[in-house]
Structure formats: structure tokens, C-alpha cells
Amino acid sequence: MRRQIVIGNWKMNGNTTANQKLLAGLVDAWTGVHQAEVAVCPPYPYLAAAAAQLENSNIGLGAQDLSKNGNGAYTGEISGEMLVDSGCRYVLVGHSERREYHGESSQLVAEKFQVALDHGLIPVLCVGETLEEREDDKTFDVIGKQLLAVVDHCGLPGVAKGIIAYEPVWAIGTGKTATPEMAQDVHSYIREVLGPEGDSMRILYGGSVKPDSAEGLFAKKDIDGALVGGAALNAEDFVAICRAAE
Ligand code: PGA
Known about the structure:
Elements: E1 5-9, H1 16-29, E2 37-41, H2 47-54, E3 59-63, H3 80-85, E4 90-93, H4 96-101, H5 106-118, E5 122-127, H6 131-135, H7 139-159, E6 163-166, H8 180-194, E7 203-206, H9 211-218, E8 225-228, H10 235-244
Parallel strand pairs: 1-2, 1-8, 2-3, 3-4, 4-5, 5-6, 6-7, 7-8
Helix pairs in contact: 1-2, 1-10, 5-7, 7-8, 9-10
Bound molecules: 2-phosphoglycolic acid (PGA).
């Protein structure tokens, strides 16, 4: 049995006041015992405050990225050690916005995945194809390569300690969601690539997930939750998605 998980990726949004309000809304709505696991990934400067606010709640904390390097002379970077020290349990690696705007290669993403594991963090590996790649029928090819880079570097048992998020680039922030069938096809392909180790791994869908699309996605057998961007900034919407995962 794979426990469903919904992770909110706040991206570069929020401020002290707005975050406090959002987290208070989530903590309030998500008390008690739940079948689904829930976590949020605020921007770095707000991690410590979020950790304090989430203490004694059942909402986990994650970061949106980490450095491949350990502490040292790397101006502007944030280490795995710092994330652990700030109360993080999860960290996204290889989000398409990192790959696209910061030129992160699959090799770098694989190194970051390993560094996250080395620090006892749960890496959430994001993979996904662009619209052009989908139209050229290259979806499986692209995703296979993104996955294998991490498998080669970390080994299958290493990869199995993380979480995978399938996020078609054309669905991120565009309001276009992959249909549950389209997502299921890719999720089942990902599980096939991972072999027996993949059976226990959680594979999330991400890309314009909203309360009204969540249920249909979560009903698919290989979809184990969601990585949510825009809708994670609204407590009511995010909680509705979390509830759909139960
Ligand atoms: P979105 O973002 O839900 O706003 O499409 C998802 C993501 O990029 O993780």
C-alpha cells in the first residue's frame, strides 16, 4: 500500500503575513489523523518560521531545491544540511522551472537527489515533457532519460527512497491538466522503468491540479497524490485537494 501524498510548491510567492495566514488555515483544517500525507514547500527565507508554525501539526515541510555542494564557499546556495537544520523533511529536485530557467541538467539533478538522500531528506524528483516533445511523440523517451540519469547515479534502491512527480511542462501554471488517462499512461511507464523497486514508490502528478481535477487523477491506480503549485497558495483549495487524496 502506498500512502497518498499531496505537496504544495509555493514557488517564489508569499510574505510573512500571507504565509502565516495560509499555514494557520492549513493547520486548522488538517488536524487529527489522516490517511493522506501533506507537506508544503515555502521559499527558503520562510522555512524556519513555517517549521515553527507547523510544529505539532501533521503537515510536513519541504524546500524547493538544494545545492549539490556541502557547506562552504558557494555564494547564494543552500545546503542539504541547512534544510535539515531548518526543519525540512522533503526537497524538490529537478523542477522544470529549475531545468529551464537555471539550465539544470539531468546529471546535476541526479547529484542533488543523492545529496538529499545523504542528508536523510526525501527527494521529490520532478520529470516531464514539453508540449513540443509530446507532439513529437517523445514523452516516454524524455521521461525515461530523466529517470535513468538518477538511476545511474543513485542506483534503484536509492531512487526508491524518494518520490517521483510527473509534471508535464505544458500543464504547469497553464490551467491545462493532463487527463487522468494521459497521466496514468506516463505513471505506469515510470513504474515500469523502475522495475520491482517502483512498486512501493509514490508517483505524484503535477500541473494545474485543482480541487475539481484532483479526484479523477487520484482515482487512477498509479497516481499516488499531487505536487500542487497555484492551488497550494489558497488554503481552501489546497485542503480540498488533500481531502480528495483520502
Ligand atoms: P501548478 O504548478 O499547479 O501551478 O501548475 C505545479 C508545479 O509546478 O509544481
